[in-house]
Write a structure and sequence with these properties.
Elements: E1 2-8, E2 13-18, H1 30-38, E3 43-49
Antiparallel strand pairs: 1-2, 1-3
């Protein structure tokens, strides 16, 4: 499972998990997750932990 923290330019931080083994959803790679957020101009930075 990957834990994602996104810091937005307004100073807020949101958290999300990807690849939860108990949820039937598509499995994402770290590169795919970074691609999702890199096109958003409101994102200051993203942190990915395993």
């Amino acid at each position: 499972m990957l834990y994602i923290a996104v810091k937005w330019k307004d100073g807020t931080v949101t958290h999300r998990t990807y690849n939860d083994p108990h949820v039937l959803e598509r499995q994402y790679t770290e590169t795919e997750i970074r691609e999702i957020y890199k096109n958003n101009p409101d994102v200051e930075y993203i942190n990915i932990a395993k």
